[in-house]
Amino acid sequence: VHTYFVLRQPLKQFKWERPVALNKFIFEKRPISTFLRMSSSVMYESCKLLVLVLTLPVIIADTESRHQVMNAGWEHSTGGPAQDATNLAGPNTRRLLTGNTIEENADYSACISNPSICESLTLNGIALTGTVPTEFGLLTSLKQLDLYDNSLIGTLPTELGNLTLLEQLEMYDNSLNGIVPTELGLLTLLTILRLYDNDFTGPIPTELGNLALLEILDLYDNSLTGTLHIVLGNLTSLTHLEFDRNDFVGTIPTELGLLSLLRQLDTYKNSFVGTVPTELGKLTSLTTLRLYDNELTGLLPTELGNLALLTLDMYKNSFIGPVPTELGNLTSLAKLRLYDNKLTGLLPIELGNLVLLTTLEIDKNNLNGPVPPELGLLTMLKSLDMLSNSFTGPLPSELMKLVSLTKLRLNDNHLTGPLPTELGNLASIQVLDLSDNQINGTLPTELGNLSLLESFKIHNNSLTGLLPMELGDLSSLTLFNVHTNAGLCGFNPVTATSPDSDNDNELDVQGTKIGYQCTGCMEDNI
Question: What burial class does residue 273 get, using C-beta atoms within 10 Å of its C-beta: 0-12 exposed, 13-18 middle, 19+ buried?
Answer without folding.
Answer: middle
